[in-house]
Amino acid sequence: MGPLTAMDVSTSGLTAYREMMDVIASNIANMYSTTTPSGAPYQEEAVVLQAGPTFAATLGQVLQPQGVEVAAVVQVGQGTAGTGAGAATVGQATNVDLVSQMTQLILASRAYDANASAFAVEKSVEQRALQLGQNA
After folding, report:
1. Which residues are bridge partners to 32 per DSSP?
2. CA 94 to CA 75: how far, in whole Å?
3. What DSSP element (H or E) covers 44?
4. 16-62: pLDDT as tens digits
5. Angle, alpha carbons 6-8-10 (nearest 5°)
């Protein structure tokens, strides 16, 4: 794995998990939105991640990890029956669960931090290699 490849892998993780945290923040912000522009209640969204486009693991080749990318942002399930905005109105409620969202936010935050740490380590290794090259 080349030096910039390791940084690219970490950068792709940073980008993917930032997107995941943005979607989770949107879910939390809209968890009480009973009416969206389409007229339906807000539906929870989730990020689907996939391996980078050049993730090759065929027989006879060395595994070349190229990171992760956001494949899609999809709506999760359907709303549940509940009270709407009006006191006497019965309609659909959002399907956003705060506890689940906070758990996912903590996991995404830790994955983001792990990628940031890996990037910092690779950066320090590259800087040290440059220093050694200058002293030689």
Report:
1. none
2. 11
3. none
4. 999 999 999 999 999 988 888 888 899 999 999 988 765 454 444 55
5. 75
User: What residue type is 54 in one-letter code?
Assistant: T
Beta bridge partners of 81: 92
**Number of domains composing the chain:** 1
The parent domain of residue 7 ranges over: 3-135
Q: What whole-number percentage of the chain has pLDDT above 70?
A: 76
Please name which of 68, 25, 26, 78 lies closest in space to residue 48, comparing C-alpha atoms. Answer: 68
Amino acid at site 90: V
Specify the 3-state DSSP secondary structure of 28: helix
pLDDT tens digits, one per residue of 109-121: 999 999 999 999 9
Name residue 64's beta-bridge partners. Answer: 56
Q: In whole angstroms, what is the distance from residue 31 CA to residue 77 CA?
A: 14
Q: Residue 134 and residue 8: Cα distance in Å, rounded?
A: 25
Q: How many other C-beta atoms can be found within 10 angstroms of the C-beta atom of residue 101?
A: 18
In angstroms, rounded to a whole number, what is the distance separating the alpha carbons of residues 24 and 21?
Answer: 5
Three-class SS of 64-77: ECCCEEEEEEEECC
